[in-house]
Design brief:
Blueprint lengths: L7 E4 L2 H10 L6 H20 L4 E5 L2 E7 L2 E9 L15 H8 L3 E7 L5 E7 L22
Parallel strand pairs: 4-5
Antiparallel strand pairs: 1-6, 2-3, 3-4, 5-6
Length: 145
């Protein structure tokens, strides 16, 4: 575990980057960033563990990685920024909150999305971050005029 918050460098080829840009053309769109981050996380683990790795999702967990007899759980968050950008990190939903807080799930932050060279941070609750509740309100159109 990297307490000093120095990322692991993850590189993809020009061809892989072109495929990502073609598949997710809109820069800055949050849903595209999330989808790219999840794809990059899977590529990272395929390279790390080989093709024997299996991926799935679970209630409140973005990525379940199975390799051999080991199972790992990750909440995957991407950003186009070169920095972790803690101020942009939001965990949605009680199940995700609970999984992170119980320590069995790590937060995998992938920076420099849409680049050949990305940074990957593995963050643990209590060691690298805390979870702070915030109030959110849904905005709905007023039925008047």
């Amino acid at each position: 575990m990297n307490k000093n918050l120095v990322p692991e460098i993850f590189k993809i080829s020009d061809q892989e980057l072109a495929e990502i840009v073609r598949k997710y053309p809109k820069e800055g769109k949050n849903s595209h960033i999330a989808e790219i981050a999840l794809e990059m996380a899977k590529k990272y683990f395929e390279r790390k563990y080989g093709k024997v790795v299996e991926f799935s999702e679970s209630d409140g967990i973005d990525l379940v990685v199975k390799h051999g007899s080991k199972i790992e759980f990750y909440e995957v968050k991407g950003t186009e920024s070169a920095k972790i950008a803690f101020n942009q990190l939001v965990v949605s939903g009680q199940p995700c909150h609970d999984h992170l807080k119980d320590g069995k799930t790590e937060l995998m932050r992938i920076t420099k999305i849409r680049n050949n060279e990305m940074g990957i941070y593995f963050l643990k609750y209590g060691e690298h971050f805390k979870l702070v509740p915030e109030v959110r309100w849904k905005v709905c159109r007023n039925s008047q005029g």
